[in-house]
Specification:
Layout: H1 3-43, H2 48-78, H3 83-87
Length: about 90
């Protein structure tokens, strides 16, 4: 196997790990946020609008982390800046 093959294999593994961790941890965080919001709604039903608005903003921020991980994984797979070094 050449260095280019090893580089492609390592890039693919790192991209897979990035996607795995990048989706698993935000999913756990979203679950915790929803549980906390539901508990808060059960204790204070009058504050429904505030809790819901805060929950949706928090969920959007958490979801953006997963999207960043997807972007990094796509860059590693398709436009890796170190690939030009191996092609020379």
């Amino acid at each position: 196997m050449t260095d280019l093959h090893w580089f492609s294999i390592v890039s693919t593994i790192v991209a897979g790990l990035t996607i795995a961790v990048g989706t698993m941890l935000p999913a756990v965080a979203m679950g915790r946020a929803i549980v906390s919001a539901l508990e808060a709604l059960a204790r204070q039903p009058d504050a429904e609008k505030t809790i819901t608005r805060t929950l949706f903003i928090g969920l959007a921020m958490i979801e953006s982390l997963a999207i960043y991980c997807l972007v990094v994984a796509l860059i590693l797979l398709f436009r890796n800046p170190l690939l030009e070094y191996f092609l020379k």
